[in-house]
Prior knowledge:
Layout: E1 3-10, E2 20-24, E3 31-35, H1 38-52, E4 56-60, H2 69-73, H3 80-85, E5 90-91, H4 100-110, E6 120-122, E7 133-138, E8 141-148, E9 165-167, H5 174-183, E10 189-194, H6 198-207, E11 213-215, E12 227-229, E13 232-235, E14 243-252, E15 255-265, H7 274-284, H8 288-291, E16 293-297, H9 310-323, E17 327-330, E18 342-345, H10 346-352, E19 358-365, H11 366-381, E20 395-397, E21 399-403, E22 413-418, E23 421-422, E24 428-433, H12 435-438, E25 445-453, H13 454-465, E26 467-468, E27 476-478
Amino acid sequence: xxxxxxxxxxxxxxxxxxxxxxxxxxxxxxxxxxxxxxxxxxxxxxxxxxxxxxxxxxxxxxxxxxxxxxxxxxxxxxxxxxxxxxxxxxxxxxxxxxxxxxxxxxxxxxxxxxxxxxxxxxxxxxxxxxxxxxxxxxxxxxxxxxxxxxxxxxxxxxxxxxxxxxxxxxxxxxxxxxxxxxxxxxxxxxxxxxxxxxxxxxxxxxxxxxxxxxxxxxxxxxxxxxxxxxxxxxxxxxxxxxxxxxxxxxxxxxxxxxxxxxxxxxxxxxxxxxxxxxxxxxxxxxxxxxxxxxxxxxxxxxxxxxxxxxxxxxxxxxxxxxxxxxxxxxxxxxxxxxxxxxxxxxxxxxxxxxxxxxxxxxxxxxxxxxxxxxxxxxxxxxxxxxxxxxxxxxxxxxxxxxxxxxxxxxxxxxxxxxxxxxxxxxxxxxxxxxxxxxxxxxxxxxxxxxxxxxxxxxxxxxxxxxxxxxxxxxxxxxx
Length: 479
């Protein structure tokens, strides 16, 4: 018998509970429009559930409880009632580990749905740290949802994030779990809920048989069509709650025989759910210290570019000025919704850099500088997707980097300049940075703190200048 199911996907919310500006390109030209908001998302979910008579599976790919001041200040707790209101069936994890593994478990206890991960292990006992899968009965189907957390938590992020845990990419574990839920548990449909990123997920779907649907997260791709890899459908729905993915499938004999996919903008076509709107208002209203205007920005700030972006250009400007050095580095983060031209508030600053790390300085040799950049480029553009463990290209100020993306590791950099002079291997360069992703610990000497954190530096920049205009001079050139 053929059965119909609708899968709703939310991924990479990053703590954005209210509607916010997003960059979209409906006619080929980038423009800002208001999207998102959990009240609208709840209204969308309710509409689809009413339309489909309950034959709906709602899943979240993680990066949910971190990314805004509201999320970070409450260690994710402020979002719990809202996410529970959505009636989700499962989630997986990434930035949630910023609250440490104990903080993640505290969040898990408060949720009405499970956190899933087959690739996160207790370092001492060796067993799984989280539930591997959930078996959900919906629309007359037994649906196995298997989780894949983001493994870079244990590889490149601060040590407290993964204390007591061990991560793998999941390629060795997943085939056994897929066979088990089908053969031992009688699953009619296998859904993988992943936070590996789209390149890795496409390779996983190519390697592992038996996956019907793979919901992808982490890389913030807005897919307008499902990608078919063998018999697996792969989808991803952007970020910040600006879009919801809707995948309608027809299932017969343990396989998907037909499907339809839509990337749904979360705009004002969806009536706000009153209960969710009240929860959001209770958590966000009446915070005058966050609404305080620190200055203005002369052009939209965003992070939607691989090599450099105006949001990070402004952050780097603040880092360099606070440290009193011309060269600065930051991580190539993907999160952070655009900030339109005009007034900038304290809350906007927290959205730029919610971890609020201290600004550090160190001294690099020319060889170290080049090696650090080559390593970052490999993590971003490695030919093997499973070796791509970075975000965007490292952000930099005071540098001119000329690169050949297609070249192999160790040979991507064509030329590097500091202060318009070629970098020499034995010369030294004092640089400022934030987080170990800015300048990894094995590079540099004489590390020291400026005593200024990133939010303070940004605030000082805006208050001193009044209006901040992102630098127009590029740092990265593809040749």
